[in-house]
Amino acid sequence: MLSAYYRAGDVGYVPFAMGHYFKKTGRQSLWFLEMFKNNRFADVLLKQWMALTPKELIQEHLNIGRELINGLRKEKWAVFKYNGI
User: Fold this and answer.
1) 34 carries an active-site annotation
2) Rounded distance between C-alpha atoms, residue 64 and residue 82, angstroms
3) 3 state SS for 29-85
4) Catalytic residue chosen out of the listed positions 34, 56, 67, 75
5) pLDDT category of residue 10 using cuts at 50, 70 and 90
6) pTM above 0.90, yes or no
């Protein structure tokens, strides 16, 4: 997993097929632009991937309880709805 910290004005690069995520830690608004070299975009959330993987496999390999696994959503939800500026 790629780990890096960025500040205003920084540019980052993630190598092809490298697992990564973004987390906003400050209080100010974040404007984020993500560009791809490919014309096809695919996005899979970790929780979604876990929900779609056989429960027994996830429970055995990650040592987590059935209650947590049953609470995972198979469909992706938007983080927020953008209503313009």
Assistant:
1) yes
2) 34
3) CCCCCCCCCCCCCCCCCHHHHHHHCCHHHHHHHHCCCHHHHHCCCCCCCCCCCCCCC
4) 34
5) confident
6) no
DSSP structure class, residue 16: T
Res 1 pLDDT > 60: no
pLDDT, tens only, 11-30: 888 887 777 777 788 888 87
Query: Which residues fall within 8 angstroms of residue 61, CB to CB, at 6 or more apart?
Result: none
Measure Cα distances from 51 to 8, 20, 71, 76, 80 in Å: 35, 19, 8, 11, 21
Give CA–CA dist 8/39, Å, rounded: 27
